[in-house]
Design a protein that fits this description.
The protein is an all-alpha fold. The protein is about 75% helix and about 0% strand.
């Protein structure tokens, strides 16, 4: 839900508050906890997500380049995990 608000704000140039960012980064932390298998990557993504959410809470504003960085970063993460080949079972 947070990504949709960030995407619409980036494409229309509208202002958004910090709350869509907090929702976005909280969702990213929950996604990493539930779907990333490598523990190092999982906890690194969770820590960076929570750090970014706390940074937006601390500064209290969202600038234009923040939205575009999050937009293209999300596309990069989706593409990486979309084309990552799944592990084959050991018995096959």
């Amino acid at each position: 839900i947070g990504f949709l608000q960030v995407f619409l704000s980036a494409s229309t140039g509208a202002e958004i508050s910090i709350f869509p960012m907090i929702i976005y980064f909280s969702g990213m932390a929950m996604w990493a906890y539930s779907s990333v298998e490598n523990l190092t990557v999982r906890y690194m993504v969770m820590a960076l997500s929570l750090l970014c959410a706390m940074a937006f809470m601390h500064f209290g504003e969202v600038l234009f380049w923040h939205k575009y960085l999050i937009y293209w970063g999300t596309i990069g993460v989706v593409v990486f995990f979309m084309f990552k080949s799944p592990k084959k079972p050991a018995g096959s």
